[in-house]
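Suppose a colleague, Dr. K., hands you the sequence of a protein chain of 284 amino acids and asks what its three-dimensional shape might be. Before reaching for any lab equipment, you can write down a predicted structure in token form. Begin with the sequence itself:
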Amino acid sequence: MSERRGIRFTKMHGAGNDYVYINGFEEAKADWPALARAVSDRHFGIGSDGLVLIGPSESADLRMRMFNADGSEAEMCGNAIRCVAKYAYEHGLCPKEAMRIETLAGQKLIRLQFAEGRVRGARVDMGAADLRRGAIPMQGPPDEMAVDVPLEPGGERYTVTCVSVGNPHCVIFTDDVEAVALCEIGPLIETHPAFPQRINVHFVQVLARDEVRMRTWERGAGITLACGTGAAAVCVAGAHTGRTDRRIVAHLPGGDLELEWAEEGHVFMTGPAEEVFRGVWPLS
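The predicted structure, expressed as tokens, is then:
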């Protein structure tokens, strides 16, 4: 494709967690962090939580690279990987109803779900969760579990449980998730010295043993309407601390996700994947 026309993209979302997707099989290489910052701007760009590059893999069916709105590269995104699978199937990159996608958090197995002949969602094997400080990472003894531990961002005291599902999450249970001043507390926890690689932050209200409501501050993106890996971490944190069952529905501002922390240790997430529109981003 010529520079005059630019880079073709597809805007997609999973439960409102929206990204700009680039077909790396067809489009020329670019400065992906800079492009992520440009396209993600909701006033002067396309508007998104980040950019996702779909490309070839030497060990899986496809490779996914994900860049946050601030240009930082993240390990994995549960909502984005469902959209990658939908795009790959519908655009002929991988005509399989079950495919493996390589990420910085390892290979993930995705099984597509269909309705009226179209891909409407997917079930993702998110892999095993890890609550040890060293896996997150979080300051402290690396083999110690980061479960119901105190944290004091900005002088406020919170009880947090931290989980790695290939990327880092801090889960905080609260009686009223809507009352949380997420814009204020989110960045303080994300950049707290306890987390040397920063962290995703989730406030969670337990509605029933199998149902929660959550709000998210994502590392490198801010408030988002959904976070798939975060919902997986919430499932693990709730079950491990006895607050919920191992199978839950998580209500997020952008929609619902179904989670299951299986007995063998893997977390499974099921949710929607939708295309919004396509276009061409001009190159200066």
